[in-house]
Structure formats: structure tokens, C-alpha cells
Amino acid sequence: MPPVTLSFEVHQPHRLRVDGVKKDADALYDRYFDDEMNEHFFKDVAENCYFPATERLLRAAKELEGTENELKVNFSISTSWIEQAKEYHPELIDMLNSFPDSSIDFIGQAYFHSLAGLFEDKEEFRWQLNHHREIIEDTFGVTPQVMTNTELIYHNEIGKIAGEEGYKGIFTEGADRILGWRSANHTYKVPEFVAEDSPAIMLRNRKLTDDVGYRFSAEWWSEFPLTAEKYAAWIDETEGDMINLFMDYETFGEHHWEGTGILWFLEALPHEFAERDIKFAKVRDVVEENEPVGEFDAFEYNTVSWADQEMDASAWLGNPMQKMLFEKMQDLESKVKKLDDPEIKDVWRKFLTSDHLHHIATKTYEDGNVHNYFSYFDHPHEGFAVITEHLMDFQQQVEKKLASK
Questions:
Q1: What is the 8-class DSSP label of residue 353?
Q2: 292-349 pLDDT, tens per residue?
Q3: How much helix, strand and coil, in percent to the nearest 5, is found in the chain?
Q4: Known catalytic residues?
Q5: Considering only CA atoms, which of 11, 7, 53 is closest in space to residue 258?
Q6: In this protein, which residues make up the domain named Glycoside hydrolase family 57 N-terminal (predicted)?
Q7: 234 in Cβ contact with 223 (< 8 Å)
Q8: Quick one: which of 387, 327, 385 has its CA closest to 356?
Q9: Closest CA to 33 of 405, 403, 393, 402
């Protein structure tokens, strides 16, 4: 029976001031970002999800510690979440550090959950991967061996860089257009013409993950209601070398409210797995113990992600507004690096956070509903106006400082 990697994306962005640039702010960060809104959202999600979900996982980890069916969980935690947790609820950091060492692993990612991996020049992306890894080491005492780029955005060059920066594995989406007839329940490698030494490419099992992440509380779903017992039975019947479940942590208590039974499902699942002798695994161990079965060839113009029906980069670069702002963020890099001001670089990197462009997608139907759910703007065009104002003002501040050097 294949082991299961249970992985969670844990992220909160630094949100922009919707009412415009605060020109009398003492600090550059406060000129653009709204910490009152950040605190409100973080504390709200902490009450609904972070505390109750982590308490349940921690309890299960301690109950099953030392058994043949230990709970093992993997967290991909953004830098911005860590910063806000330390500010608003530092006890969440303490809870994560309370897991038995054998029960928890951490996954690397880009600094501030950014879109730097899509830059033409990958120097910033490399720096971000290493800097985030250092933050995880300092915060949790663990050096990540497996990484995921923001929102599982991936193409061959990103996989090549992951290996060059010391990662043994990288996560992305098991998109059918790349996999074809093959299963997501194996590891793959970068094509040999791209890199001779490839990290193991681990693929998210989209169906089994989304059965929980998206369909759990859907009364129209033929499998509603989903119980831990039923879900464990599905896992038990699945073939492969591993089953990678990778979902947003806010699935538990935020996207699906406590009243749906999602937290009881989470609490019961490790014990249902134990009953069926289904083993959990750390992502680093899966990479070590499995040889790739083939190549996962995602060239740059066929970029993969876990977002929307397209599973590509269109969630962030799908309309002219998004493309224009992304180009502006990318163009600012040379000026920001030339200035070499820590405050300027920190603010610029927060502008690169993927959420900003995600909120101004203009998709329709179910994908549009997802974008609107996450956005704090009333309309994508309002978001475009807000981001543009902030970014243009930031450019002026950078150019003013450069002129005064």
C-alpha cells in the first residue's frame, strides 16, 4: 500500500491599503500595506482554522507517536505567514514546534509567496529560495529538503533551479496535459536535455485532494457527506508509489466551516488510516525512497500550477492588467537592487506576493468565484487601480532615492 504525504499550504499575504497610499506614514511599509486589515484576517482565520486544526493534528501526532502508524504532516509555510504569526499569535509557532520530530516536516518555497519564479532573470528567485529556507531553519529548526514554488507554479527551468539550489525534490500539480496516461502517484524527473541531475518531481493527487479541499461540503456532490472512513477506503484502494495530498490549510474551518464537520473529519482521519494500516510519510523520505519512473516535461510556455481549471499561470497573468503590473514589478528589480536599501527591497518583495495579481483576475464561472472569494477588493478593476497607485508611488520613491545618491 503506498504511503500518504499529507501537506498543507499555510499563507497570509500583506494586504494593500484599499483607500490609497498613506503619504504621511513614517515607514515605507506603512505607506502601502494595511496592518489593521492583516491583523483582522489573521486573527479571524486563526480562530476558525489555525488553532483548532493544529490542535487536532498535534493531539493525533502525540497519540500515535511511536506506533507503526505515526501521523506525519508536512507544512509549506510562507514567510509572510510567519511574520504575521509572530506579531499576532506567536503561540501558533510554539504549537508547530511542539510536534514530535518524527511527525512533522517543512517544505521550502519562495520568499513572501512571490511570483519571482516567473521572472526572466532567475537571480532573485534563487535568493528567495535560499532566504526562505534560512527562515524555516531559524523558526522551526528544520532544513527543508523538498520545495514548492508559489501555488505549485512549475516549468522545467524551475525544476532545474530547485536541484541547483540543493533541493532533493519539488512539488507541482499532476496536470493531465503533461502526465497523459501516467499516474500522479509516482515521482518524475526533469528531462535530461534540461538537467542531468534532477530533483524528484512530486505530483499532487488532484482528485483525492480536491475531494476534501473543494467538495467536502458540496451537497450536490454524489459522495456527500464525506466521512473519514469513506475517504480512508478510497486511499486504501489507490495504487502507486505514494499518494500526495496537498491542500490549503484553511480548508479546515475557514473554507469549510466547523459546522460542516470538516474538523471532526481531520481529527478522525489519522485514526482511520491507522485502522487500515495506511502509512503517512514525510516528503523528504518519499524523495529518498523512490526512483523517478519517467520525465515530467513542462516547458516554459506550458507552465503548470494548481490554480483554476487551466492549471497554468493564467490565474496571475491571464489578463492585460495582470501582465502590465507583473512587468512593472519585474522592471523595478534593477533599480531596487542598484539602490541596495533594505527597506526598499523588503517592500518590493512584498509587492511580488502572488495574491495581489490573483485578486485582479477576470475569470468567470467557478474559477471566477474562487478569485472573488479570496479577494478583498470589490471588483478586479478596483484592485488594479489600487495596486497601480501603490506601485507607481513606490517607483517614484525609488527613483527619488536613486537621484539623491
A1: B
A2: 999 999 999 999 999 999 999 999 999 999 999 999 999 999 999 999 899 999 999 9
A3: 55, 10, 35
A4: 151
A5: 53
A6: 6-294
A7: no
A8: 387
A9: 393
Max intra-chain CA distance, the chain = 68
Triad 214, 249, 348: Cα angle to 5°: 110
Distances (CA, A) of 274 to 163, 245, 314: 34, 17, 40
The dihedral sign for the CA sequence 65, 69, 74, 75: negative
Which pTM does this prediction carry? 0.96
What are the tens digits of pLDDT across the range 65-87? 999 999 999 999 999 999 999 99
How many helices, marked H, and strands, marked E, lie in the chain? Answer: 18, 10
Please name the amino acid found at residue 147. Answer: M
d(CA 243, CA 281): 10
Collapsing DSSP to helix, strand or coil, 80 comes out as helix
Contact 215, 223 (CB under 8 A): yes
DSSP 246-313: EEEGGGEETTEEGGGTHHHHHHHHHHHHHHTTPPB--HHHHHHH----SB----GGG-B-SSTTTTSS
pLDDT of 363: 86
